[in-house]
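G., the chain you wanted modeled:
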Amino acid sequence: MTVSRFQSFPLPVLLLLLIAGPSGAATLLVSQSGNDSNGLSWESAFNTIGKALMASETGDRIWIASGTYEETIKVKSDVSISGGFLGDESLDEIGTRDSRGNLTIISGKNVSTPIVTCSNVSGVRLETLTIKRASENSGVGLNVIHSDLEMVACIVEENRSDFAGGMRCQNSSVVIRDSTFTNNSVPDREFFVGGTPTSGFSFRYELAEGGGINAAVGELSLIDCLFVGNNAGKGAGLFLQEMTVTIEGCTFMENRGGYGAGIGAVDSDLTIKGSRFLSNVAEQRLSSFHSCGFGPCNPSKGYFSALGSALALFEGSVADLSACWIQENDSADQGSLYLEGSSSDLRDCLLILNQSRQGGALFLDPMSTGDLSHCTVYGNVASASGGGVYASDGASLVMVNSIFWEDFPDEIRSGSSEIRYSCIRGGGQGEGNIDEDPGFVDSGDADLRLLIDSPCIDSGTGNGHLVDLDGNPRPVDVLGKGHEGPNAFDMGAYEFQLPGSD
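Predicted structure as tokens:
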């Protein structure tokens, strides 16, 4: 950017712009009450985001006053776009604005194209924007292809399309912080198979992917994000294919889908820390139907199975979960966590009050492997078997330093699983296992920390994880309990803390 860009402006304006950003970068302003001239002050602000983008150059930032902007935009490289301004802020007040009280909404009213497009761009930052579909017309909220993007404190809601709801990421590297994806959806697709209106006809349905986000072939980081009320056949909250993903401090809640209501992953690597999966529902969905003449449609093949209300892993996916809550999820068929030809390690996790037909909390197919350590599995229900855990014959599952209690009708349908140093209602073969009431603080209120008289204190192995679900240190040796010495770990997700140890 050269000085000639500003040479026609008064000196005070020029000086203001030169201190606004690095190396001569400009701050361009957008407001529906501006005079749409040059975007260099709120009075002369551009009226549309698109016009500001056309005027922008490398390193520029665009500030947008609150209001609803009915337009679609294509983002440039190395440009940041921020919303939530009242429309009278000075250039040094970006950090003090009330972005939640002054929403900047980019709306795709009466269009069926993506609201925000990032294609072959890098260095893009979107901040404090609401991306919302304002009509029933189809169109994904954000379409990110072959791009690098950072998104902070944004809301993506009520978007709908045939290939992704809130956001689509393809061959991209994306970081999203403090953002919300809510009530986005992808309709299950139907295909005409054959026949005529008089001789009979048939349709086949295919489960659609990625209500909140549909991401393929790239990298994705989610930090402190919320996915709530999204709907899609596969991965209602988040669908992943050939992805490397880090999720930290996120919540997936009340999403509805067929496979992986919270998250569905195919051939992907996931690291999930300190996150919650709450009240997600995996429901059966029609797979096909046939109708003869003009009569009613009758199911012919039935329904797609409902798998993994919280998380479903397929085709070699690998998931590492630590310090996570998996609670009150409901799957019509198998598993709150469902593994098919995949593997997962769970550490310091709560798996409680989930329900399904098989494997209330966790289901592994014959080609899957898993490792549970320092987990508490409590109050889960399966209408068939494996109230807590269902490991199919051929699956490999190791469970250690964990608690399995009050799951119905049984704790573990184990196959050839290995269970050691764990508290299991009804007992279980394996070194160090016990069958005694674990002594929770208040199981009725889902407080599954251990009371001082719990038999699980200091009864685990001599090695384990050094931090529990609360972030407290392990191990804590309690004199007179279990194994004496500095390496006496507790069973379950919580380590008992001595009074005053905080």
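Confidence is low (pLDDT under 50) at residues 1-22, 196-205, 288-301.

Shout if anything looks off.
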